[in-house]
Amino acid sequence: MNPHPDIELTIDELNLIGFDPRARADIGDHTLAALQELVAKHLDAHGSVTSFALPHLAIGQIPSGASRKSIGTAIAQGIYTAIVDAHTEITSGNQEK
Q1: Most CB contacts within 10 A, which of 21, 30, 42, 55?
Q2: What are the domain boundaries of the chain?
Protein backbone atom coordinates (compact mmCIF):
# COMPACT_ATOMS: atom_id res chain seq x y z
CA MET A 1 0.00 0.00 0.00
CA ASN A 2 1.22 3.49 -0.84
CA PRO A 3 2.50 5.06 2.41
CA HIS A 4 1.32 8.46 1.15
CA PRO A 5 -2.02 7.89 -0.59
CA ASP A 6 -3.52 10.74 -2.57
CA ILE A 7 -6.91 11.87 -1.38
CA GLU A 8 -9.01 14.50 -3.04
CA LEU A 9 -12.11 15.73 -1.26
CA THR A 10 -14.05 18.51 -2.89
CA ILE A 11 -16.74 20.17 -0.86
CA ASP A 12 -18.46 22.57 -3.20
CA GLU A 13 -20.54 24.13 -0.51
CA LEU A 14 -20.88 23.94 3.25
CA ASN A 15 -24.14 25.61 4.26
CA LEU A 16 -24.16 26.64 7.89
CA ILE A 17 -27.70 27.90 8.16
CA GLY A 18 -28.75 29.41 11.47
CA PHE A 19 -25.21 29.96 12.74
CA ASP A 20 -23.71 33.33 13.57
CA PRO A 21 -22.11 34.54 10.32
CA ARG A 22 -19.00 35.50 12.30
CA ALA A 23 -18.62 31.87 13.46
CA ARG A 24 -18.93 30.21 10.05
CA ALA A 25 -15.25 30.48 9.06
CA ASP A 26 -14.15 29.01 12.40
CA ILE A 27 -16.66 26.18 12.09
CA GLY A 28 -15.41 25.45 8.56
CA ASP A 29 -11.81 25.40 9.78
CA HIS A 30 -12.68 23.04 12.65
CA THR A 31 -14.62 20.82 10.23
CA LEU A 32 -11.60 20.55 7.91
CA ALA A 33 -9.19 19.83 10.78
CA ALA A 34 -11.44 17.14 12.27
CA LEU A 35 -12.05 15.53 8.87
CA GLN A 36 -8.32 15.45 8.15
CA GLU A 37 -7.74 13.76 11.51
CA LEU A 38 -10.45 11.15 10.89
CA VAL A 39 -9.12 10.30 7.44
CA ALA A 40 -5.52 10.12 8.65
CA LYS A 41 -6.46 7.81 11.55
CA HIS A 42 -8.78 5.47 9.70
CA LEU A 43 -7.77 5.40 6.03
CA ASP A 44 -5.99 2.05 6.22
CA ALA A 45 -9.07 0.42 7.73
CA HIS A 46 -11.06 0.92 4.55
CA GLY A 47 -8.62 -0.38 1.96
CA SER A 48 -8.53 1.06 -1.52
CA VAL A 49 -10.05 4.44 -2.19
CA THR A 50 -12.86 4.64 -4.70
CA SER A 51 -14.19 7.68 -6.52
CA PHE A 52 -17.78 8.59 -5.77
CA ALA A 53 -19.96 11.63 -5.17
CA LEU A 54 -22.30 12.50 -2.36
CA PRO A 55 -24.62 15.08 -3.91
CA HIS A 56 -26.28 15.99 -0.62
CA LEU A 57 -25.60 15.23 2.99
CA ALA A 58 -27.75 16.19 5.95
CA ILE A 59 -25.76 16.11 9.18
CA GLY A 60 -28.72 16.55 11.51
CA GLN A 61 -29.27 18.66 14.60
CA ILE A 62 -26.47 20.38 16.49
CA PRO A 63 -27.17 21.06 20.19
CA SER A 64 -27.70 24.74 20.96
CA GLY A 65 -24.76 26.31 22.72
CA ALA A 66 -22.27 23.87 21.18
CA SER A 67 -18.76 25.24 20.66
CA ARG A 68 -17.45 25.99 17.19
CA LYS A 69 -15.00 23.11 17.56
CA SER A 70 -17.69 20.60 18.57
CA ILE A 71 -19.88 21.77 15.69
CA GLY A 72 -17.00 21.27 13.25
CA THR A 73 -16.26 17.86 14.75
CA ALA A 74 -19.90 16.78 14.40
CA ILE A 75 -20.00 17.92 10.78
CA ALA A 76 -16.72 16.14 10.01
CA GLN A 77 -17.97 12.93 11.65
CA GLY A 78 -21.13 13.09 9.53
CA ILE A 79 -19.12 13.60 6.34
CA TYR A 80 -16.69 10.82 7.25
CA THR A 81 -19.49 8.40 8.10
CA ALA A 82 -21.18 9.11 4.76
CA ILE A 83 -17.88 8.54 2.92
CA VAL A 84 -17.28 5.22 4.69
CA ASP A 85 -20.87 4.10 4.09
CA ALA A 86 -20.68 5.01 0.38
CA HIS A 87 -17.30 3.33 0.02
CA THR A 88 -18.60 0.18 1.70
CA GLU A 89 -21.65 0.13 -0.55
CA ILE A 90 -19.54 0.59 -3.69
CA THR A 91 -16.91 -1.99 -2.79
CA SER A 92 -19.50 -4.56 -1.76
CA GLY A 93 -21.19 -4.22 -5.15
CA ASN A 94 -24.53 -3.00 -3.81
CA GLN A 95 -24.59 0.34 -5.61
CA GLU A 96 -27.14 0.66 -8.40
CA LYS A 97 -25.66 1.22 -11.82
Answers
A1: 30
A2: 16-47+59-97
